[in-house]
Amino acid sequence: MTIGIEHYLVVSLVLFLLGLFIVVTHRNGVRILMGVELILNSANLNFVAFNRYMPDSALSGNVFAIFVIILAAAEAVVALAIVLAVYQQFSTIHMDEISNMKH
Questions:
Q1: Farthest CA pair distance, the chain
Q2: Which position has the higher pLDDT, 61 or 21?
Q3: Which pLDDT value is given to residue 19?
């Protein structure tokens, strides 16, 4: 049995749906960030899979994957800094409690 592009796309879809589920259902700021990271990793998997099975494309999928990894690292740093600032201000990282305190 050979692994085709369909297998990569199914794994990527599962990662994306899991990340989306986490973002939509959880209230914890750190868990939401983990869901966003899963979504970005599913995009990386697509880039690398399409690069492997369509190598004659003008732009390499690996370049895009490295760009997304750099973007995810920057997003994680900024978002964790925001979560820490919110925790210092409100003593919680639950997003629904923060929005209730605003009123």
A1: 59
A2: 21
A3: 95
Instruction: Please give the C-alpha separations between residue 44 and each of 6, 58, 84, 89, in angstroms, as whole numbers.
Output: 15, 17, 28, 35
> Once rounded to an integer, what is the mean pLDDT over residues 79-83?
83
What is the second-level CATH architecture of the domain 5-101? Orthogonal Bundle (1.10)
Hey, where are the domains in the chain? Answer: 5-101
The amino acid sitting at 79 is A
Indicate the DSSP class of residue 28.
B
pLDDT tens digits along 22-75: 999 988 888 888 898 899 889 888 888 888 887 776 567 777 778 888 888 888
Pick from 39, 42, 50, 48: nearest CA to 66: 48
Q: What tokens does 83 get?
A: 């979560």
- Angle at which helices 61-90 and 29-53 pack, to 10 degrees? 180
Joined together, the tokens standing for residue 21 give: 């589920």
